[in-house]
Specification:
Radius of gyration: 19 Å
Order of helices and strands: HHHHEEHEHEHEEHHEHEE
Length: 261
């Protein structure tokens, strides 16, 4: 652990004075690697990680995201695992990510985007006719930016700063809850993860679907995370690989679908 931390400090020293977006993202990555390492080795909370000497955060810490999005430009977008029209390989075919999702959606579906970040996923879904989307994120910075940029052009879509583990929506408010990387970001905190899954279930109408796009396979996401926090039925999984980057093994992802009874 000490050797790795020393290497992280070395990387940070090399980035001093570099204000490029690449250097910014590397500094953010170093902070999360250090924070996650310390959290798991010393059993620390997110707040305790943040108080450590040196730059240290976990993805579950709201302050990390607020700080990160305050430093991004209007042109920058980041999509965990791809966006709506990303090319993917699934079942031996070259498809778009949306081809795995549209059979589970209706144009009239009321959709909760469960941690939108600065992704253009919702924007592209709206352009394809899925207009009833509520975007939430822990970062007020990113929510205000998206609202300012898109509200006039997409008047039926909404943006709200909110914690996925403590939603303010009524019970049975949504037809679809769509998670793309948010549960992955907070899974280092089991308490937050369980609360988020419970809230997703609570705000879904009976028969509504929870969709999770993730690097976690079905045993992990469905068996050890979703079903331990809420009651689900008719769960299924589709596997896909990104066709535009890296090796197939490191780019293998899943779309999990579970129905609320």
């Amino acid at each position: 652990v000490k050797e790795l931390d020393a290497e992280l400090f070395r990387v940070e020293d090399e980035l001093v004075g570099d204000e490029s977006s690449i250097a910014r993202d590397l500094r953010s990555m170093v902070a999360v690697v250090r924070g996650t390492l310390m959290q798991h080795t010393a059993k620390l909370s997110d707040e305790e990680v943040e108080s450590l000497e040196g730059n240290a955060f976990t993805y579950a810490n709201p302050r990390y995201w607020e700080d990160y999005y305050s430093k991004t430009s209007a042109e920058e977008k980041y999509d965990w695992y791809g966006t709506w029209d990303s090319k993917v390989e699934a079942a031996g075919e070259t498809l778009r990510l949306k081809d795995l999702l549209t059979p589970k959606l209706a144009k009239s579906s009321k959709i909760l985007m469960f941690g939108c970040g600065n992704s253009d996923m919702s924007e592209k879904m709206y352009e394809d006719g899925y207009e009833s989307i509520v975007n939430i994120d822990i970062s007020e910075n990113v929510i205000n930016f998206l609202k300012e940029r898109l509200q006039e052009r997409m008047p039926n879509m909404r943006w709200m700063a909110m914690n996925v583990s403590d939603l303010t929506f009524a019970d049975s408010d949504f037809d679809i809850v769509l998670d793309k990387g948010t549960l992955d970001a907070i899974e280092g905190s089991p308490k937050l993860l369980r609360a988020a899954v419970f809230e997703a279930s609570r705000t879904l109408r009976p028969g509504g679907l929870f969709l999770s796009i993730t690097f976690n396979d079905a045993d992990a996401r469905i068996g050890r995370q979703l079903k331990e926090a809420a009651n689900w039925q008719d769960c299924s999984t589709e596997t896909f690989e990104r066709t535009s980057s890296g090796t197939a093994g490191s780019n293998r992802f899943f779309v999990h679908s579970c129905r609320k009874p």
